[in-house]
Amino acid sequence: EATRVLHGLTNPLVVDNVVPRAAFRLAKGIVILTNVRGGVAFISGGMGSGLLMRKMPTGRWSGPASLGTLTAAVGLQFGWRKTDTLLILPTDYHVDIFQQALDGVGQIKIGATVAVAAGPVGRDAAVDARIGQGGAAVCLSYSHSQGMYVGWNLEGEVLVGRQTDNEEYYYTEGVTAE
Predict the structure, then answer these.
(1) Bridge partners of 86?
(2) Which of 21, 26, 39, 63 has the highest count of CB atoms within 10 angstroms of its CB?
(3) Minimal CA–CA distance to 127: which of 141, 144, 116, 117?
(4) Which residues contact 17 (CB under 8 A, 6 or more apart)?
(5) b/e string for 115-142 if b means 16 or more Cβ within 10 A?
(6) What is the mean pLDDT of residues 161-172?
(7) What is the rounded CA–CA span in Å between residue 34 and residue 64?
(8) Please, what is the average pLDDT of the chain?
(9) d(CA 176, CA 72)
(10) In a 3-state reduction of DSSP, which class is residue 1?
(11) Considering only CA atoms, which of 66, 48, 55 is closest in space to residue 23?
């Protein structure tokens, strides 16, 4: 799923989807997420999954660390949408905050979103802060939405590590995001 999201947001044949190559060159890490959200009237919720990868000192990317999200929101909204998001983490500090969230108590995102999706085309505009045990993170975000949704809301999201997925992927019990 993460490979599909990454290809969808970096396809040079679709001008609207191109993430600048410089963003990857400068990035110390990336988070790839797919979230499904839905709501009626003044309340909505959602869930998602994704992964975190760190750029190693050699310039190669690390293996993935699996993560999950749960979202709740209040505001004027109707419908459902699936949003694919790529977060560019610009410093090791930012990667460490996400990594600690996956290995520890999680991370909370608090923010506001305006979104519209009609079939395969959708747009989100968001302002948020991610706060975890290790500090706060602000990062670049690229996303694409699908579905039938219109709304604005104030939302909270919890991000946690998916330990079972990581153990299955690495064939190692007790493996951490670090």
Answers:
(1) 32, 142
(2) 39
(3) 141
(4) 8, 9, 10, 11, 144
(5) bbbeeeebebeeebebebebeebebeeb
(6) 93
(7) 15
(8) 83
(9) 27
(10) coil
(11) 55
Q: Are 67 and 9 in contact (CB under 8 A)?
A: no
Residues 95-129 pLDDT 10s: 988 888 888 767 777 776 777 777 776 666 565 66
Amino acid at 63: G
- CA–CA gap between residue 155 and residue 165 (Å, rounded): 26
* pTM recorded for the entire structure: 0.83
**What's the pLDDT band for 172 if we cut at 50, 70, 90?**
very high
Determine how β-strand 135-137 pairs with β-strand 29-54. unpaired
**Assigned token pair, 22:** 């410089």
Which long-range contacts link 135-141 to residues 24+ away (Cβ below 8 Å)? 135/93, 135/97, 136/97, 137/89, 137/93, 137/94, 137/97, 137/98, 138/94, 139/31, 139/87, 139/88, 139/89, 139/90, 139/94, 140/23, 140/87, 140/88, 140/90, 141/85, 141/86, 141/87, 141/88
How far apart, in whole angstroms, are the C-alpha atoms of residue 102 and residue 127?
22
Token reading at 59? 């310039």
Longest dimension (CA), the chain: 50
Per the structure block, which two tokens stand in for 138?
Answer: 């602000």
**In which residue are the tokens 């993560």 written?**
67
